[in-house]
Amino acid sequence: MGAAIVLLAFSGIGLLRPVEDVSYTLLSPIETGLRAIAQPAADIVSRYGDTRELTQENEALRAENERLTSEVARLHEDTARLDEFERLLGTRDALADHEFLVADVVSSDPTSGRRRVAINKGRSDGLRTGMPVVTEGSTLVGTITKVENDHAWITLVTDIDSAVSSRILESRAEGIVEGKYGGTMNMAWIDQNAAVKEGDRVVTSGLGGTYPDGLVIGRVTRVGGNPQELFQSVTVAPLASLSRLETVLVMVTFVPAEVSAP
Q1: DSSP letters along 193-205, please?
Q2: pTM of the model
Q3: Using CA of residue 243, residue 209, residue 236, residue 231, what is the dihedral sign?
């Protein structure tokens, strides 16, 4: 204790200053060296902390970006569905004499040459074979040809088994629109003297009682044939986007008539 008091006294009057200077001189390089050794480790620890924080922030931003992207996609889908329903409502209003059931397309027939799709409504919803199916613009899609309890199959107008009594609006020429391989249609039995040209509109004629009159089928895209033949060769393109059907209207109040042979 006494020695400590003496040292403090000597230090206070500066007698130990040379010793302190020597100690500082001896220890300072060591301290500097130790700091030089320790600083990179400290920097690594600091950078690791910063990197970890940035990684966490990036992950949070990535998750938020994915959430917002999903939300935007959902909003786009909702908007598209709303627009489609509004157009279908316009079709329903234009065909006010009939009642409709809205149905979603859930499957398609992969068989080569066939053009058939399945909808999520069936016998339990009151569907029967022979009911016409339309989409926006009062455009004919096809006919229900098979009904199960919870779904039904539609044979499209472009299917090889489809045949629709039709009329060309501009010339009033009548014929049968038949589906062909490749998703095209031909209008058969058009007289050579009928004035038919590309762009003419084709609608259902109502003859035979299979479809109501005036449903839109498509437009004439090609007129050909040999003048020596009795009938023209007329190609018709469907106006409905049959390869991208999502929602359709089934005419549940239309009952196909059975016309007997003469």
Answers
A1: TS---TT-EEEE-
A2: 0.69
A3: positive
